[in-house]
Design goal:
Elements (H helix, E strand, L loop, with lengths): L1 E6 L2 H17 L2 E6 L10 H6 L7 E2 L7 H19 L3 E5 L3 H12 L4 E4 L11 H12 L2 E4 L2 H9 L6 E3 L3 H13 L14 E5 L3 H4 L2 H12 L4 E5 L2 H10 L8 E4 L4 H9 L3 E4 L2 H9 L4 E3 L7 H5 L3 E3 L2 H8 L17 H12 L2
């Protein structure tokens, strides 16, 4: 069996790592296509080395552009790739423009599509990620849901017969990396263990409006401890456009970290402040309190179990300083063997 994986952004590279290992164990021929949606080396190529992922077989190099142009470029670039390789499955990951474009390209060529991380919903139609995820789910042939909540969303949309709950592959690799870096010091300089928070802000709804971005930066700066802001290229560009400084008060900007260093920095932090879908869940798995600057989350279990709080800028500083929640033993995202379940589901569905 031949599976073609399409990835293009940091969370997808993380998900790809355990999939590569599981496919090798299962004897599945695996082709990796990197769309180039994330083109900064710290957010892209370095992940392949850090996570021991084989080099991509194809690199489309689409780079940054508007949603329509980027999606269209990936869609056009995939035609030749699919025609040349003719896989048994095209495996797409998460909710990016790469996900939707690759799924559409495969559907047009009558190649089966499997969607990893299917069924997650924020129910915020203003988010481009929500459009990507819903459209991909409805055109895919196999829906690999990470949670029972995700599977219930798919059932409500009439997609239960295509759905298999496999667990969350991000959990697989996070646990592996956590164990590798557990004894290493924080990679962030000039901070004291347990007395700083790690922050990431990059979503368009938080960066494009100068007043909202300034309110978020002011809130981060007023948290009662040091906040280390890992400055995504989008944030750096937007802050420059708006004439806003990323260093103020207790806020200190820092270049993005390689994934193992990101995990290590979170392990030593007292909290995580983010608008990322992946990082709020990673914080929960590491049992680090998360404060999420979004009105909704796809990972509702993190909120329900008390380890994540959704905030607007005016609430951010207070919530980021809240006491540590009570420990829980729940494992809503699986025990760390989701990638093997993905390989099993693809093999069974191909029969």
């Amino acid at each position: 069996m031949k599976v073609l994986s399409v990835v293009g952004a940091r969370p997808q590279f993380v998900k790809l790592a355990p999939i590569c290992r599981a496919f090798e164990e299962a004897g599945i021929e695996h082709i990796i296509v990197h769309t180039g949606q994330h083109y900064d080396p710290m957010l892209s190529d370095v992940f392949f080395a850090d996570l021991s992922i084989p080099a991509p077989d194809v690199h489309l190099g689409v780079g940054s552009a508007s949603h329509g142009k980027q999606t269209g470029a990936i869609l056009a670039g995939m035609d030749d790739v699919l025609d040349e390789n003719r896989p048994d499955w095209v495996l797409v990951y998460g909710d990016t423009n790469s996900t939707l474009a690759a799924a559409l390209a495969a559907v047009k060529m009558h190649i089966p599509v499997a969607h990893l991380e299917a069924g997650l919903r924020s129910f915020n139609r203003a988010m481009p990620e929500e459009h990507n995820r819903v459209l991909t789910d409805h055109c895919a042939d196999l829906l690999l849901a990470p949670t029972e909540v995700g599977a219930s969303h798919l059932a409500n949309e009439g997609l239960a017969d295509r759905t298999v709950v496999v667990g969350d592959v991000m959990t697989d690799v996070l646990y592996q990396v956590r164990d590798l870096v557990a004894d290493k010091p924080s990679p962030v300089a000039d901070v004291t263990d347990g007395e700083y928070s790690i922050a990431t802000i990059h979503r368009a709804e938080n960066t494009d409006d100068p007043k909202r971005l300034e309110a978020i930066l002011d809130a981060l700066a007023s948290v009662d401890h040091t906040v280390v802001l890992l400055a995504h290229p989008r944030l750096v560009a937007k802050a420059k456009d708006h004439g806003l400084s990323l260093d103020r008060g207790n806020l200190v900007s820092h270049e993005p970290l390689a994934y193992p260093d990101l995990v290590a920095s979170c392990l030593h932090a007292r909290g995580v402040i983010t608008d990322s879908g992946g990082l709020q869940k990673e914080a929960f798995l590491l049992r680090v309190p998360a404060t999420t600057v979004r009105p909704q989350t796809e990972w509702v279990e993190t909120v329900e179990l008390g380890w994540n709080v959704l905030v607007e800028p005016g609430e951010l500083a207070a919530q980021a300083s809240r006491p540590r929640p009570a420990d829980v033993d729940d494992q809503p995202y699986g025990s760390g063997r989701a990638a093997q379940e993905v390989a099993k589901a693809l093999t069974q569905a191909a029969r």
